[in-house]
Amino acid sequence: MMPHLDITAYLTQYSWTLITLLALYSIMSLFILPKIQNNLRIRSILQEERPAPYKGQPANSAYNIVKDILKR
């Protein structure tokens, strides 16, 4: 009999699949997706307001906002 058709192993395969998918979902939602969201927020802020060239001038408000976001 083929192992993938064995009824006795079906429940353990199903439970390990659910455990693995739950772990991957947790890792994605807690660690990876917030970083991506933060990067997209920073990009949109920087696209709205371009930085002034650095010649002793104070940073514009976009960089202040980015600093605030990165502190969180």
Automatic annotation (TrEMBL):
Listed transmembrane segments:
14-33
Every copy of the ATP synthase YMF19-like N-terminal domain together lies at 3-51
**Main site of residence?**
mitochondrion
Q: Name one GO cellular component term.
A: mitochondrial membrane
Q: Which UniProt keywords apply?
A: ATP synthesis, Membrane, Mitochondrion, Transmembrane, Transmembrane helix
Its GO biological process annotations read: ATP biosynthetic process
- Pfam families for the chain: YMF19 (PF02326)
Query: Where is this protein localized, as stated in its record?
Result: Mitochondrion membrane
- Report whether Lipid biosynthesis shows up as a keyword of the record: no
Name of the protein:
ATP synthetase subunit 8
Give the source species: Sarcophyton glaucum (Toadstool umbrella leather coral)
Lineage from the top down? Eukaryota, Metazoa, Cnidaria, Anthozoa, Octocorallia
Which gene holds the coding sequence for this protein? ATPase 8
